[in-house]
Amino acid sequence: MSAPTRQFNRLSIGRNMSETTLPARVARAGRPDPSDDDSDHGEDDSSSEEGSNGGDEADKEDESSDEEESESTSASVLAASGIAYDLSQLDSELEASAIVGLNGGFDVVNCGSTAAGYDFQLLDRPHVHIGPDSTTCSCYAFKNRPDGACQHIFWLLDQLHGCYLSAPQSIEVALTPDGRPDRLPRIESLLKGDLGSVATRLEWQYLRDEDSTGKGMTRTEKVRDIFSAFSSRTLPEDTRRDLTETIEQARTAEQCVVQGDFEATMFRLAVHDDGVFNSLCKAMPAGACAAIYFDKIQEQTRRLLNDFDRYCVTGELPAEPVSPGLGVEVSDVVTQLQRAVSQITTNIAARAPHGSEGAAEALVSLLESVVARNNDPLEGNPLGRESFHGEDEDQRNLYHLLIGSVETDSETDARHFVLHALEALPPADLHQCANRLRDILRKIEVNRAPKPYLIHLGNIIRIAESSGSGATGSGQKRPATGNGNSGGYSKRTR
């Protein structure tokens, strides 16, 4: 802009401030007085006086010109989304908030849809609500000026609008006196039924509406999930029961302290203190928890089958059984594998849209392992053992017990081991496993699997193959969790 802002080219407001064109009235306010340098000219009094008279008139003309020019010049901010915002209609207070917000970088801990609109929980407590009639924030700046927008609202609306513009870099938008973009559709209309996909794109944790779906996690379950994610083997279902026994009673931070038990103290704080809960959600987001969960389920089934194979060959019982109370007898293994599939199915729904890629990998790997065990596990046993407890070879064949054969009764057919769980996954995440599923189908056709099972698997494969790479699935990238360890996993907004 043409106003004399050279004195302020290093000025920054707020954090993460980029180079921003500042308002002419701000630049003019800091302009130095030309008369401050009069003593340096070395001229006599008369000439100085004469020169100053002429200079005053020139200054007045320049000032008048600057005044007129500044009124026709506006501040413009290029935001992180690429949208250029004209701030000329904002007063100085809202303009400062807009500059800080549009050049800032905040973190969304979680977001969700409610009957009243959309809620966004930002780190360090600000809570932004987008409703049909207004957008509000819980921060002090908004409470002090509820007729406008705060820096959190400016930033959030820019992030959301950027998701709906194919070329935001070519968009110029003027902000109305209350802070709303005048040329863009109202964001609450764009978000209808779409917040989940937007949250996935921006890598924000999306909280399902538990009241309407009945499938989401409660806050206590989320805390239990986060705590178990830091363990290499423990699943949320297997965490200490005493941690959840007394959480229904409201507690202050002081009342959450359990003397001599740090884990129980932190668990209670996470359940009852929003600050602790939000910090834990930021450190271990829902996407990371989901990936870790399905990785651990897959590792547990692998360990269980390896323990069973070792037991069949050597008679050796595992030092650390996968499930306390259950061993590696055939009936125990079948029970644990069926329970694992049930756990995966339940968690696909509870964790959506996160983790479906990991769930698909766990299910297909398990199915491959069972299909590969269509044999008598005691055949060729070096110990000369011919039976566990007097059963025949089919009664200890895992493939026969879990999938069956053409002679299998209808009750076994109805179980359709793993297949119902696969159907719960987005087709796009099944697409990555289509070739492996096709190989499984060929093998069980040779093994003479029950016809209903073959038809069911064939239908799943056709859906997976037809979904293609362009289909929309969970869109959730799986973090590198290693051996159940989430170290190094982090997310940032754009």
From TrEMBL:
Protein name, UniProt field: SWIM-type domain-containing protein
Keyword line: Metal-binding, Zinc, Zinc-finger
SWIM-type domain span: 126-161
InterPro entries attached to this UniProt entry: Znf_SWIM
Compositional bias per record (Acidic residues), positions renumbered to this chain: 35-48, 56-71
Renumbered residue ranges of the record's region Disordered: 1-76, 468-494
Originating organism: Penicillium bovifimosum
PROSITE patterns: ZF_SWIM (PS50966)
MF terms in GO: zinc ion binding
Composition bias, Polar residues: 1-21
